[in-house]
């Protein structure tokens, strides 16, 4: 007994073209976006989207018959289970089986979602509403985790799904209620779909253009609320930026804006080996990432300048340096021109959210050495490095932060200031350097700022006293004995957009965050001829009594302050920002620092030549070795074998399986094995003689994958693209273009089919093939023009066409029927009829049917569907 049908083939084809294909296109877009965020998807979005497309199309066809959903779905689940078991039985290797199972799981999930959607669109009236809500909810989750909180970003992410939701609900209902026997219903539904798309896009554009100001207001209000939940608030400025992978980096510029976004998450932990003379009391230092030496007056942005004179900024990429090997730049020490009261200080930085390529340390840093993170701390810290700095004895977080009436800190500061009073002027300073670091814009607004600086420092004789006078001015009180200036994360902006925000801060509202205080200080110092620049990084607060010398750095400690140049002493830190009580009194960290980290006896750096995941062995071409902290190098690589059976494999993003290591990768392998403890290098040892002393295979405890430079550049390019602001008008027009392109493609499908049939009819030489191709082309052509055969016999239909258009279709039809149903050969007259029929017939129809009529009827997709769909009445 044949299984009954729920839908005709005409309706099934309509569901596939108008429902399944747009849904699949949207899913391709969704999985493409997901692949850019989740490495486990392995950038295989094309295949993953095809899983969903196969599921939805298969379900629409399958459930056009009277199959029960629960029964058939159980069968599908059983098939999945059998497939999963087969993977476990036949996959070779532990990690091969793992990745195969992940791929199968993705297939099962996406195919099942497609299958459920196909069933819903085919059988269930209200499924489109559920499906639309599910997509919108899913997009809300994705946006909340991966997107900047901007009105443009929100609109750009939700507009296409909203348009799709309205489309799928509208179209599904049209198809459900379609009258398959109505001749012109196809044209009826297409007109309504095109009209619906135009109206929908016009409404969306109109709403967004009209209420743009309201969207911005919501962005600001919600954005500030969002900042309280440690998410990046893109509606305001932040001293740090959130990267695509979720990590945090310092910014190479900062804008003066109406509000500052602060998160509360832990960014990194540092051990700083800097103590006062008693060797017990910690002496904290600010951690510096960038120097801002330029100011864009148009955007009111402080920026870095790689061409700054006497560049003493050390910016290595720790993720590119082999573990335990060091990168040093002694030029930055020379560029400080500092010889007085300086010493070398060491710090260790353990990254929590800090980006793998980010380097931050007290100034002036000149040394970077990646170090491993112990097994027990790998969940908390992603990577670590050791830094060395050429530090001034006059720098201290105690000294530079405003003491706010603390007598002990004031005494510390006074001793420091007394030393700096030895500098009377800058006459000995290089003119190029002085001109650069005292440059400031020249207009009326900055003239008023200069006048204020001259008034404040009128009684100050030395550069440091001028600096103190500016600091004291920000700490002064008004006539009501209230603080003249206040710290605020939301200082507001001038009523005139182009007005100077620094002048607004200094002369009107007197509220601001660190960038305002540092910027105003910078220009007041430069206005009176004191070389200065802004330093950006993290302020250091000593809140821990349990582990002296350890410091925890949170997002809200990202900071900007001023550095002043003193000949002989170099750049000295000053901070004029009014203390932010919330930051100073942040909860005391209760984490355990990574104590008692091991030093490696043997470290090998090179390129992988082979990996055995079963025996847990790696073969490595080695060209550089550290053995008991002694460095050995060679120009000719030596191949050695490594035993990684107990080794931890890592990248800068965290721990990875051994299967991640591939031939050709650059890795560094470190060993803490006791077997190497007593094997010491001799003075005359070379790399080859050292390797001869090391056991074969060499026992390895830690392997770090060094990412290739081209891959990092690709990531940087992707990050730069991700940081570009979204133009929502472009997004909407792109959505309109996609919808319009899809509509045009659908409408032109009959023309493409016709061109294929037309070319086949004209190109056929054989009589029988010519007759078949000509008949097929003619029938399709007439069908598209609205002259379908329906239940009329072939000869009757041909005669009707002849009567209307004065053609010879009936005689050709007789010959065609003879070829189709008889084995008798054609006569010469019949062969001539076949060869001479097609071209004159088409030309005759074209002359008698106006072009406008032909064009409007040819884009009727439902005539095409009807042509390929058997008639209900036989």
TrEMBL record:
Name under which the protein is recorded: Transglutaminase domain-containing protein
Transmembrane parts of this sequence: 12-31, 51-67, 74-92, 98-119, 126-143, 149-172, 193-211, 731-754
Presence of the UniProt keyword Transmembrane helix in the record: yes
InterPro entries found in the cross-reference section: Bact_TGase-like, Papain-like_cys_pep_sf, Transglutaminase-like
The entry's keywords: Membrane, Transmembrane, Transmembrane helix
Species of provenance: Panacibacter microcysteis
Record's keyword annotation contains S-adenosyl-L-methionine: no
Location of the Transglutaminase-like domain: 506-578
Compositional bias per record (Polar residues), positions renumbered to this chain: 246-257
Composition bias type Basic and acidic residues, residue spans: 229-245
Signal peptide residues on this chain, from the entry's feature table: none
Region listing for Disordered, in residue ranges: 229-257
Superkingdom of this protein's organism: Bacteria
